UniProtKB/TrEMBL annotation:
Domain of life assignment: Eukaryota
Residue span(s) of domain Peptidase M20 dimerisation: 249-350
Recorded family membership: Belongs to the peptidase M20A family.
Organism field: Penicillium nordicum
Keyword match NADP: no
Keywords: Hydrolase
InterPro entries membership: Amidase_Cbmase, Bact_exopeptidase_dim_dom, Peptidase_M20, Peptidase_M20_dimer
UniProt GO molecular function: hydrolase activity, acting on carbon-nitrogen (but not peptide) bonds, in linear amidines
Alphabetized Pfam families for the sequence: M20_dimer, Peptidase_M20
Name of the protein this chain belongs to: Peptidase M20 dimerisation domain-containing protein
Length: 459
């Protein structure tokens, strides 16, 4: 919850990025900042929740995948793109593909701008939503200016990116990419109501399409490229005083579960030398993982720690389970951190008293992702022209996004814009009107740039 003063402090902070009024648009097109801002906030009425301030827009969002509000905004989106003359296709995961024809009348897959309209239960107004509203604003701007791209361009609203209601994040882009089986995705159950599945909600709202959720050119909906504008969800742009992040990839991560075995013993009568204390060992292991990651400029985090539910104050715990999440832009560093951690854990396990034993499982291995050089170059060109090299920065995404999956099947890259204090997945998540507009203009320029590059390449 932000006090009024804090909000005001940010607005002056945000003014550092008020480049939106002064930038030169190399395409000759200029997005409508007011229209973008109003559309974003008007449509956020569907799912608005968690009021935190005086202004009507001072709320977060609770627009969970395929709830009634998500269905409302989806129907609105369908109507808006059709008003622009786009064709609309919906696949078997409810992914929505809006397509605006290019002047070449090419049957080649469209250049897509994608993101998601669903939110976390205590989410904000920008994560995902900005990407879709920006994409729509790009189409509106092209449309009203009579501007034709060479190839078809369009928007994709990916279903269930958040994985909050149906617990699998980047769910439908994962199915599209062939990484998640559709039956598994369809069978995901509402975390509060096991009688409701993702598929039953698709059916209830009329979003179970007929096209295969796939990049297959015959049965599915292939894409020629995928660009995603997103709030950074971290503090790096703000800390470096940059307006646009040119995202060249996503870091790799591994999730491990460690189980440390000891022996329960009376805390008053068992001297340290006679103990096998798994909680003490776990705490040393967690601290060691932090130091090792730090040394490698990587991240290591423990989000869950479990002791048996019958543990007591005056008993040494018998067993402890904890998670370890290791991240870095290079897989080799992720591996090195893991190896060093395991070695350190071996040492720690023998240290106190009679020592403990441990075993571990690898639950998730998500290799680092490198986005497409040409897409990244298009975004960099857009950023250079709009704000100059000194105000943009190459970066690696710390979080997963639909673009991570699309990049497996089509040239893809992302644009980041700063958000207040780097906060997201929180009602007070905020991105200034200027930054939303600048990011949207960058999205437009990147798409136009890439479209021209693709036309040259093909001819
Ligand atoms: Zn998102």
């Amino acid at each position: 919850m932000y006090a009024k003063g804090a909000t005001r402090a940010f607005h002056s902070n945000a003014r550092r990025f008020s480049t939106a009024t002064s930038f030169q648009a190399p395409s000759g097109l200029k997005i409508n900042s007011e229209r973008l801002w109003n559309t974003l906030h008007e449509t956020s009425e569907w799912g608005a929740a968690h009021k935190y301030g005086e202004n009507p827009t001072d709320t977060g969002m609770a627009r969970l995948t395929l709830n009634d509000d998500d269905a409302r905004v989806r129907k609105w989106f369908a109507a808006e793109v059709q008003k622009l003359g786009c064709s609309l296709s919906i696949d078997q995961m409810g992914n929505m593909f809006a397509r605006q024809p290019g002047r070449l009348n090419s049957t080649a897959p469209m250049i897509a701008m994608g993101s998601h309209l669903d939110t976390q239960p205590r989410g904000g107004r920008y994560d995902g939503i900005l990407g879709i509203m920006a994409a729509l604003e790009v189409l509106r701007t092209m449309n009203e200016s009579g501007f034709w791209t060479n190839f078809d361009v369009g928007v994709v609203n990916w279903t269930n990116e958040e994985g909050a209601r149906f617990p699998k994040s980047m769910c439908a882009s994962g199915v599209w990419a062939g990484a998640i089986p559709i039956r598994k995705a369809w069978d995901l159950r509402d975390i509060h109501n096991p009688n409701v599945t993702l598929r039953s909600e698709l059916e209830r709202h009329g979003f179970l399409g007929e096209i295969a959720c796939s990049s297959d050119p015959i049965t599915g909906y292939p894409l020629g490229a995928h660009f995603e504008l997103h709030i950074e969800q971290g503090p790096i742009l703000l800390e470096n005083n940059r307006a646009i992040g040119v995202v060249r990839g996503a870091q790799g991560y591994r999730w491990l579960t460690m189980t440390v075995h000891g022996k329960d013993a009376h805390t008053g009568t068992t001297p340290f030398t006679a103990r096998q204390d798994p909680l003490l060992a776990s705490s040393r292991m967690i601290a060691a993982s932090h130091d090792i990651a730090k040394k490698h400029n990587a991240l290591a985090s423990t989000g869950i720690i479990k002791v048996p539910s019958n543990a007591s104050t005056n008993t040494v715990a018998s067993q402890v389970t904890f998670t370890l999440d290791i991240r870095h832009p290079h897989d080799s560093v992720v591996h090195a951190v893991q190896e060093e951690c395991l070695k350190a854990f071996d040492t720690i396990a023998s240290q106190d008293g009679k020592g403990v034993s441990f075993d571990w499982t690898l639950d998730t291995d998500s290799p680092a992702v490198k986005f497409d050089d040409d897409c990244v170059a298009s975004i960099q060109a857009a950023a250079d022209q709009l704000v100059g090299r000194a105000k943009s920065m190459l970066m690696t995404s710390g979080a997963g996004h639909d673009t991570v999956y699309t990049s497996q099947h089509c040239p893809s890259a992302m644009i980041f814009v700063p958000c207040l204090d780097g906060v997201s997945h929180h009602p007070t998540e905020f991105c200034s009107q200027q930054d939303c507009a600048l990011g949207t203009q960058a999205l437009l320029e990147a798409v136009v740039h890439y479209d021209q590059f693709r036309a040259k390449k093909d001819h």
